[in-house]
Specification:
Helix content is 34%, strand content 23%. The protein is of the alpha+beta class. It has two domains: 224 residues, Beta-Lactamase, CATH 3.30.450.380; 272 residues, P-loop containing nucleotide triphosphate hydrolases (Rossmann fold). Strands 3-4-5-9-8-7-13-12-11 form a nine-stranded mixed beta sheet. Helix 9 packs parallel to helix 10 and helix 13 crosses helix 14.
């Protein structure tokens, strides 16, 4: 963290009639609509999910909100704390720094009687944190995303358990919103303002996108995605119901066979979460190059160490497509692209046709032809001779209750690769035959018997089809056993690694 001079923080003072040292909080804390607590998040100041008329809200602080008298006390404390720490500067967003400022604020507020702890907490976050945003970001397990739709609208969160919830917090206006975002952007050497009204940045494991006028017609809009905080291991997503043991075993054999796959779905359907978890199945000795745009969201298992991570940018001279080309010069054994949007798809598929397998995510409907058509169309524009590198697609969806799950798995057989003699004719001149491996929430057992992955695995390992099917069953059973044993993530990773090494060299 970089220390910020205190003068850079005092960007918004209270009304002129208030004492000079009084600085009101940048946000409002509203009373609860309901007293019915359905889940408590605990913490220094109570955070709880409330239920009211069939809807959920996420509440921070006392259910009664912050009264006018408490707001005045907070304004006085904020000014006094700023004066006390002005000589040393602050490491904004640092948890220990926030704790230090809570201590200072508590000392100044203790004479106010009961309830001052909540005010001290909020003052500290307004000074050393990002106001209401850093208070919400502390709930690393319960909150997946924070949403601001206008400068002074109620802030919303997407709960991992309860879906989208309103909160009892809101900024006082556009200036206060901008200050909070710029405090986040400071360490990334970015800012949001008149000359730069749109900003993308990564803060620890949170991904922030924010806009102001003229692009945000309401004055401000932002999304803070916190998925990177969560430990979403392969075993965790199987337990959550996102993917089954059989589907994970299928992808495992696909990776071992050096085949190419895309993970498709709408935004926030868990594509990157699934991709990161599936990378636990990668072999530790394989050189894997990961290319992402600006923000590194993909997480890797502890044993994956032969790894190169590259960044491209929509705004800089070196884009994601350029980095895929550069990756091909680094002798990769697999390339992973966080999200395909443009020219990187063309370069990735070109690499796939010279023997470099890939995994990638992209936005697409859960139809096999939709995936192909999007890849062939602008701005991806995969060349006709390279589209046949696609072997499989796995599709995710987010249900109305917020649950993310796999909803389809398809395989592609191409006329140009002599894998079929029919199929659907495409505008590029090739023909493709689709086969679905998914039904009723799991891999179809009868479909896996004729799977392209099983055929390829048998070929490269010199095994019979029966032996490869037995391997699929054993891998699926291993995953089920690990879950049944209830072991921790590191031990689970070790069991998977031992099995992989044994199956490869045993």
């Amino acid at each position: 963290m970089i220390k910020i001079n205190i003068r850079d923080l005092v960007l918004s003072r209270g009304p002129a009639h208030e004492p000079a040292q009084a600085l009101r909080l940048s946000f409002e804390v509203l009373p609860a609509d309901s007293q019915r607590v359905v889940k408590s998040a605990g913490g220094l100041v109570e955070k709880a999910v409330l239920s009211y008329n069939g809807r959920y809200s996420y509440h921070v602080g006392p259910l009664s909100g912050i009264s006018g008298g408490a707001e005045k006390a907070a304004a006085m404390a904020k000014g006094a704390v700023l004066a006390e720490v002005s000589s040393s500067g602050l490491e904004i967003g640092n948890a220990s720094e926030i704790s230090r400022v809570i201590g200072i604020s508590s000392r100044l507020l203790s004479k106010n009687g009961a309830g001052y702890e909540a005010i001290a907490y909020m003052v500290a976050h307004d000074i050393a944190g990002y106001g209401p945003l850093s208070m919400l970001m502390e709930d690393k397990e319960g909150i997946e995303e924070i949403e601001i739709n206008s400068p002074s609208s109620i802030i919303s969160v997407v709960s991992a358990e309860f879906g989208r919830c309103s909160t009892n917090l809101r900024f006082r206006g556009e200036n206060e919103f901008r200050v909070a975002v710029n405090k986040m952007a400071y360490n990334a050497e970015k800012s949001i303002g008149f000359e730069n009204p749109v900003v993308d940045l990564q803060l620890d494991n949170a991904r922030i996108h924010a806009q102001i006028k003229p692009y945000a017609t309401s004055g401000a809009a932002a999304s803070i995605r916190m998925g990177g905080f969560k430990n979403r291991s392969l075993i965790a997503i199987i337990k959550s119901g996102m993917i089954t043991c059989e589907a994970a075993a299928y992808v495992w054999m696909l990776l071992d066979s050096g085949m190419c796959m895309v993970i498709c779905g709408p935004p926030a359907s868990g594509k990157t979460t699934l991709l990161s978890a599936l990378m636990e199945l990668d072999m530790p000795y394989r050189k894997t190059i990961v290319v992402e745009e600006d923000i590194n969201e993909i997480r890797f298992a502890n044993h994956v160490n032969n790894l190169v991570a590259l960044h491209g940018s929509r705004y800089g001279k070196v884009g994601v497509g350029d980095q895929v080309v550069n990756a091909l010069r680094l002798r990769p054994e697999m390339i992973v692209v966080g999200e395909m949007r443009g020219s990187e798809a063309r370069e990735l598929f070109a690499g796939g046709n010279i023997g470099v397998p890939f995994l990638a995510t992209m936005h697409s409907n859960p139809e096999p032809i939709a995936v192909v058509n999007r890849l062939l169309s602008r701005p991806m524009s995969v060349e006709a001779g390279n589209i046949s590198a696609l072997d499989s697609s796995i599709h995710t969806v987010q249900d109305l209750n917020g649950t993310r799950r796999v909803c389809a798995v398809f395989e592609y057989r191409w006329l140009s690769r002599a894998e079929t003699d029919g199929g659907e004719e495409l505008s590029c001149g090739d023909s493709v035959e689709f086969s679905s491996l998914w039904e009723g929430g799991n891999i179809l057992r009868k479909a896996i018997g004729s799977s392209k992955v099983i055929e390829k695995y048998s070929h490269i390992r010199g095994l019979s089809k029966k032996a490869s099917l037995r391997e699929f069953e054993e891998r699926s059973a291993l995953l089920e056993k690990i879950i049944a044993e209830g072991i921790g993530q590191r031990e689970a990773e070790k069991k998977l690694l031992d099995y992989k090494i044994g199956s490869e060299f045993g």
